[in-house]
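Reviewers of the previous submission asked for a worked example of the structure-prediction workflow described in the proposal, so we include one complete record here. The input consisted solely of the amino acid sequence. No template or homolog information was supplied to the procedure at any stage.
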Amino acid sequence: MKRLFALMLSIIMLLSISVPVYAREPRKVTVAFPNLADNRLYVVNEDGSLGGMMYEYFENLGKCAGWDIQYVVDDMETLFDSFLNGDIDIMGSTGYSEGMDEYADYPSLSSGFDYTCLVVQNDNIDITSGDLTSLDNKTVAISSTQEKNGKEKVLEDFCDSNQIHLDIKVYESHLDYFNALKNGETDMILISSAARGSDMRIVTRFADSPYYTVVSKDKPEILRELNAALYTMHAMSQDYMDQLENKYMKGNDSLANAFTAEEKTYLREKGTLTAVLPKTSYGASDKLGVNGNYSCLDADIAQYFCSEIGISVNYIVTDTLDQAIEMVKEKKADFLPLMITHPGSEDTYSELQLFPYNTPEQMRVTANPSSNKPVLVLPQYEQNLPEMDALLDDYEKVLYCSSAVECLEYVSEGRATETILDNFAAQYLLMENSYPNLSITPTDLKLTTMTLAAPASADTNLLTILEKAVLNMNASEIDDTVYQRMITEQTNASVTLTAFFKKHVISISAALLAVIVFILSCIAVVLISRIRQKSMQETLAERERSEKELSRALERANVATEAKTRFLSNVSHEMRTPLNGISGMLTLMQNEESAQKNKEYLEKARISCSQLLSLINSVLDMSRIESGRETLSPESFHMSTILEELHAMLSIQAESRNIRMDINGASIPDRTLIGDCVKLKQILSNVIVNAIKFTPEGGRITLTAEEKAPNGKGEILYLFECRDNGIGMTKEFMKTMFQPFSRSVEADKMQISGTGLGLSVIKGLVDLMHGTIDVDSQKGKGSVFRIILPFPEEPDIKEESSAESESQEEPKDSAALLQGKRVLVTEDNELNLEITEQFLEIMGIESSPARDGAEAVDMFSSSPSGTFDAILMDIQMPKMDGYEATKAIRSLPREDAASVPIIAITANAFREDMERALSCGMNDHLSKPVDVKKLQEILIKYCCGRE
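From that input alone, the workflow returned the following structure tokens.
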């Protein structure tokens, strides 16, 4: 997770820094864009403009790849022939088939996963979604392209396995193929779920398969750039295609339209569905089912499906999964929300009706991806999966462990090179445990499936209702449900066995002490009765002293625990706001052509990025956690600048909910103040974000800042008043609103997300800054938060500011000094290496890459003296780390070994890391994420001899 987070910040910093770029001319790439009637993938408007899901996808792909995309619009058959002839470079939404290998190259990553579906017109009442018997003896249209790609065989296999007969008609033209359904020539058409029209309803879906953006044969440069762009898009947002599909493909698939009259009657009479929850469910405790406690992942998923169906759910609890399966088979429960099944295991559950609904992505976790002799370790349950056969050929040895945790330990300890786990398990285990040497990359493997199980002999209405719920479900919402449960359990996991002993240290110590006192007393009675009273008094005195010491130790432990809790809550809460600002600005940039607008968006993203980096930097000082105290970091600032940054950071979030947000501070005199502006922005942004969350759409929020008279210490008082017309608060809640984890009943009823820490964070920071806060609120009418904070004014330092201005202008004149310099870049992470090389290229510097310390030493020692003007050295690398590599270079018997500047460029940002870098022979230290301006200044200093 640490490396993923560093990767994300590196990309954000690369996008948010405005520097002159001397890049190559964008490559012109032609993309097939079929003109299809009533299609949400490819939209050709009457005025010739383009739109749809694939248009937005190609536009973002082009930005990541640095392409100038030229769209070729025509009918599907013409485009397909042009692509096969090599006249078109790129074609999207293409499934894999052996025949296409002759004409197209496939990238390393798929663009997404899709289902092959049978669809009907929305107004068709003869065919019922989920009821396969209603398909018998109906006609289906397929295109000639589908026939060539083997889809006809897939459909025939589906018919054979379900014992139904379909009359399949093949159409040469895509237009004739679509019109066959609209004109009633056929009852259904075979189509991918993403390509169906808005007037089409899914009857059933099958054959989950990846689809790709493919490149015309023998165009390796375009293929390489496509692979890099897909990896970048995946690293920035793993569920990007899900987001696009939710945006464009949300059709009229509501269950209310899919249920028959008989099914609706069944639901009314049934009233509620019963789900069985095994205590082995993720997140379940031994008290599952006691006093209404049904908190676990199975219950979350059951609640999601029943909410989609529109029916309440009851729960029964079993000790094991096997017992839960038996409950379903015996029809004591209507369904089991979650079973993990594997390919080929369906026959094992002959008495169950299985409904697969989610296929988690498989992730490759590795500690040494460059190993020439890879060793793979897998969980035992994957040993006999047929999908693994081809994969295993790439490894020298394959090991099997009893659990995913044990697999990660094997890789971390070097007993194996890598493992393959599903996305949920990999992300959670890496988050829960510390594996700093492991990295994670996606694969296209699909090895396990999340499945809902019902009795095979259940009422037909129940089975068709469950199947329709699965057909209409949103896969990304299931992912969100799983991730939310992971976060919840990670938070709850803080109560460990060690914490239990700390919490009961007095009771345990007192018990042990009592035993000691009893033994000493017995010995005293037997040996010398005369000194019994004196011995007892000494023992009691010792006990009293021990209890006082234990009490003081417990108090110190409680203070430390409370500080850790407050710290983690603060970081989690405060990071969301700037991240939302960054994400919002980058999303707007994807669809904006105006250079001026994009410049404004970049500036707003940079402001949010700066606050996020300020929060991350505060994490580094762990002494704050141990002391149980937050500290202030005073710096000079202007109040008007703070208010402008707040508006830039939060306006997108307000506009997304159609809320008018005004920040007024025009009456404040322009002064240079001294104070902790990061915590000031935390306080004000928390107040505004809370107002946004609890204000309905169309509402209004106003933050007014006023300067008041100075206090007795000469500090200027500032009043900040945040007023909204939201749902307000009750008097009862206002009594406890500043307590940690305090949430109103209305927030839970309205399902407003939050941890209940926001107001306690605000109160703690206001107290720390010696300010005051008071609140007026009325339920149904809104709330008013008034915060008063003191800030001293900075003395006039115009001369220094002028000098600073001159110094800030100097790098612009000094940039030309680096032209033609050569720098050896040592970095084991490919993405970080690419970013650093691009930064150096911007400065006019020629770079040479080395991917570990040993390679850097070899390159330097084998080069002529004076070849490199400087060396940028990463620290944590395979084979040889940065410290050892620096010592080896300094010890070389050549003229420039002792004089070449070596600069550490690493994520190790503690003071002791900087001191160690200097002590081993490095000249300077630069922490990641890299600030290109600081990098330029350091290189000018050491390569050009300028301070």
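The radius of gyration is 33 Å. We consider this example representative of the routine output the project will generate in years two and three.
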